[in-house]
Amino acid sequence: MSGYRLLPLVPDDTVEIDFDGMRLSARRGEPLAASLIANGLSTVARSFKYHRPRGIVGFGSWEPNAVVETPDGIELATNVRAFDGLNARAANCWPSARFDAKSFLGTFSALMPAGFYYKTFRGPGGRLWPLFEPMIRKAAGIGRLPDRPAAETPKRNAHCDVLVIGAGAAGLAAARAVASNASRIILLDEGEAPGGRLLDRPDLRIDGVDGREWARLCAKSLAANGVRVLARTTAIGRYDGGLVVALERSPEGRPARLWKIRAKSIVLATGAIERPLVFPDNDRPGAMLLTAALAFAVRHGVAVGREVVAVADNDAAYDDAVALAMAGVAVRHIVDPRVVPDPELVAKARAAGIECHAEFTPTGIVGSPVRGVRLVGGDSRSRTLDCDVVAMSGGTTPLVHLHSHSGGRLRHVGKLRAFVPDGPHDGAWSAGACNGAASLDEVLRDGSAAGREAARAAGCRVDSTAPPRAEGGDARAEPGSEPLAADVAHRKAFVDFAADVTIDDLRLAAREGYESVELLKRYTTTGMAIDQGRMGNLAAIEALAQAKRVAPGLVGTTTYRPPFVPVPFSTIADTNGTLLRPSRATTLTAWHEAAGAVMYEAGAHWRRPGYYPQAGDTMEAAVRRECRAVRQMAGMYDSSPLGKFEVVGPDAATFLDFVYATRLSDLAPGRGRYALQLHEDGRLFDDGIVFRTAMDRYFVTTTTGNADACHQRFEYCRQILRPELRVGVLNVTEQWADIVVCGPRARAVLADTGLSLPERFPFLGLAACSFAGLPVQVARAGFTGELSFEIFLPASAAPQAWRDLLEAGRRHAIAPVGSEANHVLRIEKGFISVGHEADGICGPDDLGLSFAVHADKPDFVGRQALLRDRASPSGRPQLVGLMARDPQFVLPEGSAVLRAQGDRTRGFVTASCWSDALGRSLAMALIEDGRSLTGSDVTLALADGTAGAQVVPPSFYDPKGERQRG
Amino acid sequence: MASSIASIQPIGREQVSAWLCADRPTDEAVSIAPGTWLAFGDGVPGPGAIDLSDAYGGFIVTGAGALDVLMQGIALDLERAPAGFIGRARLGDIGVLLWRTDGGFVLRCERSYAEWLEGWLARAVRLSTGGT
Fold it and tell me: Is A117 helix (H, G, I), strand (E, B) or coil?
């Protein structure tokens, strides 16, 4: 293969690029693949498994070999555009594609048949796998990601009446058939300019105009009528409900925008791609697709070689070969395995100076890169034709993938030896070559018809002008040869170039019993590499059909899934770390951060202080100091993320009695109660304190992490389960900040700020108070087991109130407290935490919370299941406390609990800490029938041994609760 | 934050009132759930109103590129939304309330998300103008 430029470079358009350390001249904006061919490079890649030398085979996104690394990422050389300073290197090789250190693997290729890994490393015993796995994983994969972060790709939502995917002849005809003045139409195409394959064939005419000019004028007229025409845009996935995701690239080939288009109707005019022929050494550099050779010549002025032999088994290839010759490329021969090709086409080719050879089949390639092609005739005569390019054409593969993405069925068409859509599906009409239309006239008529159908379905007016008429383009791409080489004589005949899968691999797999196409795919990896089998799938299906002696249609296809073409993850995922996930801040978050708190997400996206280290503090030291403050003096923490709801209406009490397992209808105004919500299966869903503020009004608190889920549940119960109740629910989580002041000096701190509490203010009471002139609600509640006051106040007032409380608390040695200290304090008290102890498996009885369940109520969510649980209580996980035998040893959370060494797992440690108040380690655990083990010893399985612990009741500090009630 | 194509202005603290009742309590009230109404702006509180003035943050997005900025994250068909359109939408991973005005859009979100949303909008403006 010694490519060259048909059109000389013009200085203004010439750029310098680097490839594999070589400095090359290129035309600005042309595909890198064109630059490489024009510079005479044949070997530009190495194959995935055997590291065989490979050249450019396809065009656009239909390239299986030439994967390159660029500073922007891993891309196909056919998609990367040449610009000044482009620095690319071939992927999957070292030091270069031409001299690859791993090419020795090809020598051992006979030892690496289909299923090589399974047979060699995972066979009986599987002992070799751990040894070889790191090496195999290191060797696997194609390319290295660039060091620098990927640029962000903007996303864009769009809506339209009709979306036309593909601006070739069919797509343009379809778009024209929709009355564009009255409709919103989007027309997108992967190419730089509209026209598709019309761009490669100057001999085709439509409505009396050169096909290329017709496409240009058609797109121009559509755009002038308001059609949004997106060039360089590839639809990569189709989803239910008319959603199509498409990637638009910049003129340099970089991802520029990810479109999410919702269309009422879709026309799929995605065309078809050429298939290579399967014969020995068909992967040698210089063997490529005929249509790709034509596109490089016509669109980019690059000749793929100096002596081209076209090996083709269909009529359309004759026209393409002639077009290639007309473009100035020396096409010497057409070799056709068919016995009697169309005489008219043969005459046309001969008139273009091409010698035609019927009834000759390729049997091999001479040289690497290509120096010739070996043939065998119908009379068994062999001959060799000299050439530097073998341009293959084995029929076409209709691109049905987008049709299939959302579940469209396919049918096999024998004449095409291919699958096509079995009718429209989910608002999408296929048209043109992807729908099996062969001649240009058929393509145009099919496009118009699909456009009209799509327009009607979208409620748009249909354009009444007649479909465009074609002149030329009658030759059909219907392959006429035997589908696959019968005997490859132990030389590699590739079916899937990208995954290095040969015809022998497929036949071996079939012999070994992999007779389902899905299993065949996974066993041989055919269709699993970068081109997802677009080039080789049909040949693989035919190979399996031959082996099973059934029709290919009965074999079926594998499942086509998005993305349709390779897409960098960075275009889909968000590359900006701070915006990757939403982050929530309370009105006190700025204060926490300014105070040096170590912040992290703690439920429902909230950014919360974990602890407040002072100079030189470790986390442990900070947490101990904060815990001591709460137990001995005073602490305060920001509990604003707590879920908060107003439940209002004459039936508010009945409603809450239904939602909660706890009776709440008998609460007096100004009083609260610890209350439980259950799942329908009787397991604990959420807990919190519910306060009654008036006879028809409640103030409900939930856990932080479940606040949104509780809101959904309240609305579900209100709107669906109990619509007859006159009640409303308002989420006031964001309205009210919640500052908790706790510890023995808590009351004194509040008094020093001027916050006057009611004289009689019992535990779980709620009072309306005044704080610095601001009306606030104060609750006698908390999560630390100490005297505790929760101050609910408008969020905007919280920063000043927080500062006032800190100032007033200074003389009481008050300390801000983070969530780490809270975790310790609640373990000391044995308070459960939803997510730690309530894990969706435990019910209230398991957690020792039966006191909060009023099963005598006639009905509440989860009641029936709870009663069922109570009927067979043994074997349940039960919450217990654990005291490690070594009091200095903090049991790791998550450790498995056994009754004794050698026993099966009976449970696990849910929470564990060092308790400064008790001077020892503490833990909580869920253990099967755990309460019956109180006083006995259990064994904990650790990563590096075992530890002993005693089972105790799960309340270590002030078990009678006198401090919090005091 | 401003650019040649879109300008983002935070909305300061404003009066927000909520009602839990079957019928629309005021002409300005917007339904956010069956029987749940919300109104923004001074002068709208009425009988039974619950104050939510601290629960919402928001931004005014104006300029020729305002639509493009919002459609980076909102899947609603905003191109066809007339001035006066009010809707609830998902932007990125959060819920927003959205008004189309003569000159652009008003976005409101739960206050705790406002800081994140401001960052998201700033990035959307930057990407709209071709920045990376």
Answer: helix
Q: For A717-760, where are the alpha helices, taking DSSP H only? A: 746-752
Adjacent-strand bridge partners of A261: A158, A244
Q: What is the DSSP letter of A940?
A: E
In DSSP terms, which residues pair with B22 in a beta bridge? none
- Whether the per-residue pLDDT at A322 is higher than 70: the answer is yes
A73: tokens are 């990422």
Query: What letter would DSSP give residue A731?
Result: E
**For the domain bounded by A643-731, which CATH number is listed?**
3.30.70.1400
Reported as a single tens digit per residue, the pLDDT across B10-43 is 999 999 999 999 899 998 899 988 999 999 988 7
Cross-chain Cβ contact B52/A732 below 8 Å: yes
Would you say the C-alpha torsion A28, A34, A35, A38 has a positive or negative sign? Answer: negative
CA of A586 vs chain B CAs: smallest distance (Å): 6
- Inter-chain CB proximity B72 and A157 less than 8 Å: yes
CB proximity A712 to B under 8 Å? no
Helix/strand/coil for A730: strand
Range of the domain at B73: 7-128
| Maximum pairwise Cα distance, chain B | 50
Residues A749, A808 contacting (CB under 8 angstroms): yes
Q: Which residue is it, tokens 């389960």?
A: A721
Confirm or reject contact between B77 and chain A (CB < 8 A).
yes
Q: Does B101 touch chain A (CB under 8 A)?
A: no
pLDDT for position B122: 94
pLDDT at A768: 96
Give CATH for domain A155-273+398-471: 3.50.50.60
Cα(B36)–Cα(A715) distance, integer angstroms: 11
The C-alpha angle A824, A827, A832, rounded to 5 degrees, equals 125
* Residue B47 is assigned to a structural domain of this protein: yes
Question: In chain A, what percentage of residues exceed pLDDT 90?
Answer: 82
Cis upstream peptide for A641 (omega within 30°): no
For residue A726, give the amino acid letter.
R
Q: Give CATH 1.10.10 domain extents, chain A.
A: 485-555
Return the residue matching tokens 């409603």: A655
Asked if the structure places residue B1 within a domain, the reply is no
Distance separating alpha carbons of residues A813 and B84, to the nearest angstrom: 55
| Predicted local confidence at residue A570, as pLDDT | 86
CA distance B99 to chain A (A): 18
Contacting residues of A for B23, CB less than 8 Å apart: none
Q: How confident is the model at residue A476 (pLDDT cuts 50, 70, 90)?
A: confident
- A149 Cα to chain B: minimum distance (Å): 11
CATH number at residue B120: 3.30.1360.120
Question: Do the Cβ atoms of B18 and A648 come within 8 Å?
Answer: no
- B115 in contact with A at a CB cutoff of 8 Å? yes
Q: How many Å separate Cα A53 from the centre of its chain?
A: 32
For residue B4, pLDDT beyond 90: no
CATH of span A589-641+735-825: 3.30.1360.120
Question: Distance from CA of residue A583 to its chain's centroid?
Answer: 21
B116 touches chain A (CB under 8 A): yes
Q: What CATH number is given for A276-394 in this structure?
A: 3.50.50.60
d(C-alpha A249, C-alpha A252), whole Å: 8
Domain A874-966 has CATH 2.40.30.110: yes
For chain B, how many structural domains are there in total? Answer: 1
Q: Report residue A756's pLDDT band, with 50, 70 and 90 as the boundaries.
A: confident
Rounded to whole angstroms, the Cα distance separating A657 from A235 reads 53
Note whether A446 and A431 are within 8 A (CB).
Answer: yes
Q: What is the pLDDT of residues A811-849, one digit of tens each?
A: 999 999 999 999 999 999 999 999 889 888 999 999 999
* Number of neighbouring beta carbons within 10 Å of residue A423: 12
Yes or no: is domain A1-142 CATH 3.40.50.1860?
A: no
Judged by DSSP in three states, A51 sits in coil
